[in-house]
Amino acid sequence: MPRAISATLRRNLEEPSSNEYLIILLEISHQSLATPIRVANDVVPYVYEDNTYLGFPFEIELLGDIAQTPRGRIRIQNVDQEIGEAVLELTDPPELSITILAASDFSETLTDGKREPVGTPIIEYQALHLIFGNISVDAMSISGDIASFDMGNEPWPAIRATADRLPGLDP
Questions:
Q1: What pTM, to 2 d.p., does this model score?
Q2: Helix (H) or strand (E) holding 8
């Protein structure tokens, strides 16, 4: 099933002389991190929902809409080593959230060095609670796989009718 984007954004993106583009916001969170790592796929920071997303160019392959477990890939530049060091210290995979917004939902001029929203930005795509795994870090970049929760690996039924759990059913 194809993803739906707003008609206005589609028209703006398809227009030959358009300045419209997409802003991809990533949030990497883990209980070991004091605050989540938030980055925007641009060279300037963005403010969204009272959070600042630092401008860090990255490459992303979004999760597919196929029958198997959705998977994607991401590569973030490790410019100041801060993100790489934080991710390397984690003992288990962090959680990743992806939000895609239209650049026209943000001001063109910078306020305190950041692009602020104009009104309420429309979420064009959002994937929450993803797993950021198979992470590799080097001096230039951080790369890893993006996966969603795989329900196929969960036991079914999740609760079994046993004599300990339901003593009244045991003859």
A1: 0.80
A2: helix 7-14
